[in-house]
Amino acid sequence: MIEFKNVSASYDGELAVLRDVSFTVGDGDFVAFVGTNGAGKSTTMRLANGLLKPTAGEVLVDGVPTTALKTSELARRIGFLFQNPDRQICCNTVREELLFGFKALGEEGPAAEERVDAIIERFGFDADAEPYLLNRGTRQLLALASIIVLAPPTIILDEPTTGLDFRECVKVMDVVRELNEGGTTVITVCHDMEVVGDFARRVIAMTGGRVVADGATFDVLRDGRVLKEAHILPPQVTEVSMILGRDEGCPEAIAQADTVPQMVAAIAQELQLEGRAAAEAAALANDVAAALSAETVASAAAVVEAKAMLGDAGADGEGGR
Ligand SMILES: Nc1ncnc2c1ncn2[C@@H]1O[C@H](COP(=O)(O)OP(=O)(O)OP(=O)(O)O)[C@@H](O)[C@H]1O
Ligand SMILES: [Mg+2]
């Protein structure tokens, strides 16, 4: 468990970069920190893993203040992934890189070798490859693997998907999701609200060194005040749902669909209720799903397209009521 109690922080001892930040991340949680550049997200991550100490308040890891924990103790409890994997990678081969953490903790030996072998197989790495010759996505996966091979109960990821293409992003986040399902606590900073919507269960939004929202992912991502204050856009499908929901008569399930599968199910259900053949309903719903998931970044064109499709369906439906 990680607790921030009225934490303030500064890099130069004068200018407060964090102000009175309080939150608790429980074991097994999956939290995303969102907000504009300079909001204090990376600073919060540095405080959580003990790299930075608060100027006021307390940061507690499993009930112990970070000021009272040794670096090695913190390293065992928390794995930290830097935004840039090249800040993390320092060895000549993939195998050495994955053994590095064990060496640093003085835990080399057959058990460590076994864990490294297992992770090489799981990720499909070439053990003898030179890390710096790997592509960006694979280097990011290697940096992530070098942390999770140590099996820390908590991982902190500072923008783990920035600079990755869609497939690489999904690969990294699927590993993270699997870890979380296995009980690992995940705290991540993320600028991509599609990724946040797909993976995080809770969102903490920051602006100007303060927390402006802390709640269930879609409660935060649907809150107009928070979106404005933290300068974020909701995921595309959530935005479509919010736009459609403003229309009087928009079916409740569509107005509250947070994800593409929820939207597809809501539309299919609505069209069936309105007497359309099930196959036609499913085909239309799939078209909407395709339009929505074609892009990971919100695009006005897809919103218009989805709205037009729903508009057609809605017009028919209203005629039948
Ligand atoms: N090493 C540092 N020394 C001095 N000031 C810093 C340092 N790192 C960050 N800051 C300042 O602290 C504030 C918060 O920065 P931080 O990196 O925590 O923001 P962030 O939310 O992670 O932003 P981004 O989305 O750009 O990564 C900013 O005003 C930044 O300029
Ligand atoms: Mg940052």
Description:
The protein is α/β, with parallel strands linked by helices. It has two domains: about 1-235, P-loop containing nucleotide triphosphate hydrolases (Rossmann fold, 3-Layer(aba) Sandwich); about 240-310, no CATH class. It is built from 14 helices and ten strands. It has helices spanning about 40-50, 70-75, 95-105, 110-125, 135-150, 165-180, 195-200, 215-220, 225-230, 235-245, 250-255, 260-275, 280-295, 300-320; strands spanning about 1-10, 15-25, 30-35, 55-60, 65, 80, 155-160, 185-190, 200-205, 210-215. The chain has a six-stranded mixed β-sheet, sandwiched between helices. β7 (about 155-160), α6 and β8 form a beta-alpha-beta unit. The longest helix is centred in the C-terminal third of the chain and has 21 residues, at about 300-320. Residues about 315-320 have low confidence and may be disordered. It binds adenosine-5'-triphosphate and magnesium ion. Magnesium ion (MG) binds near residues 41, 42 and 189.
